[in-house]
Amino acid sequence: MRVVLATYGSRGDVEPMAALALRLRELGAEALVCAPPDEEFAARLAEAGVELVPVGESVRSLVSGPPPAPSELPRRAARLVEQFHAAVLAAAEPGGAVVATGLFPAVAGAQAAAEQLGARFTCVALQPTMLPSPQHRPFEYPMLPYPPEVTDPRELWELDIGTMNALFGVAVNTRRAAVGLPEAANVRDLVLTGRPWLATDPLLDPWASPGEPGGGGEGDGGGRDEGAAGAAWPAVTQTGAWILPDERPLPADLSAFLAAGEAPVYVGFGSMPLRDPADAARVAVAAVRAQGRRVLLGRGWARLAEVDGAEDCFAVGEVNQQALFPKVAAVVHHGGAGTTTTAARAGTPQVLVPQIVDQPYWASRVADLGIGVAHDGPTPTSESLAAALRRALAPGTRGRAAALAADIRTDGAEVAAKLLLG
């Protein structure tokens, strides 16, 4: 069977799909990934032996450039729907399967292609705030804020239907009509389907089905419960996080830096571009030095770099974080799902400085679990980051992080592959 995996987003959206592709191939299926054409994504998938079908424009160039004008958003959404519809339609087969995540218009394009072909479609969320639940609020788009007096998540998720229709309804329905598919009055629930998957660790992210007190586990979605205004909550299947094994050795110069002294504090913001990377690096270095620690800067899309050439600071580019994080004293990062999970698996304390979308959620989870600290706000000062680091480096935090690490699951991609092929 051929399985087409589609995503448009940052590395945190692409790498999990490569992990699933590998597991599918091990079980005898044919799998390929439709994803952005960024060179680093192509290189990572090539290293894993996964076929990439490049779709759309570079995500890095998109997020690193000036933000688009609001008037540009409908055109960009329509383009993504069209591009992913065309790519998945060409790559998938009738009776096969399509799995999609990432930006909503890309998922909608993949869903339309699967429907047109008669292929099975699964929408997967790599973070929980994408999925309707009475336990949390929907993501709020700045151009369409929710009324401040509405605070009940159930009411907000009902309003979210109108928000998604306003932002993406024309793009989705125009494409559907053009290829002979019926238009949808509720594009959000059409694309999410009634049974989406959640590819997150159930310990870090305990999904609670409506009406149930606990979190979800493998295959645990419960039934479809009634939300506000009679809407049905989706029956979510939580598979565990999809982790791509990384066997790459650490660079020799990085290994030498690690061996030259006490474990450093790693600071990196992954795929997040920052307005003032030079100032962010200065703040981070000062905060870490205040703890008597050496500093390891992850350049990332923020392009962090050494600030003064001192021997206690080192900057590294793309690196195997699975191998690196167990060797550092703490991880300061933006709060992406992948980085959060990798640091948790390493048993290393974390300081999360959340920037956008789901990152505040992961910051709150790390703080609630006691395995790290959530920084208050996206732009730390050297004093505020130093205070957060002091708490993260405390023995109690390190002990809790180490104790929790053994319970982080690593079989999520295997679980998902078996569900797809079973």
Question: How is this fold's topology laid out?
Answer:
Elements: E1 2-8, H1 11-26, E2 30-35, H2 39-48, E3 51-54, H3 59-64, H4 73-91, E4 97-102, H5 104-117, E5 120-125, H6 153-178, H7 187-192, E6 197-198, E7 237-238, H8 252-259, E8 265-268, H9 277-289, E9 295-298, E10 313-316, H10 321-324, E11 330-333, H11 337-346, E12 350-352, H12 359-369, E13 372-374, H13 382-392, H14 395-405, H15 412-421
Parallel strand pairs: 1-2, 1-4, 2-3, 4-5, 5-6, 6-7, 8-9, 8-11, 9-10, 11-12, 12-13
Helix pairs in contact: 1-2, 1-15, 4-5, 4-6, 5-6, 9-13
Description:
With 422 residues, this protein is α/β, with parallel strands linked by helices. It folds into 2 domains: 2-243, Rossmann fold, CATH 3.40.50.2000; 252-405, 3-Layer(aba) Sandwich (Rossmann fold). It has 15 helices and 13 strands. The protein has helices spanning 11-26, 39-48, 59-64, 73-91, 104-117, 153-178, 187-192, 252-259, 277-289, 321-324, 337-346, 359-369, 382-392, 395-405, 412-421, and strands spanning 2-8, 30-35, 51-54, 97-102, 120-125, 197-198, 237-238, 265-268, 295-298, 313-316, 330-333, 350-352, 372-374. The strands form 2 sheets. The chain has a 7-stranded parallel β-sheet with strand order 3-2-1-4-5-6-7, sandwiched between helices. A 6-stranded parallel β-sheet has the order 10-9-8-11-12-13, sandwiched between helices. The longest helix has 26 residues, at 153-178. It is globular. Mean pLDDT is 93; it is low at 213-230.
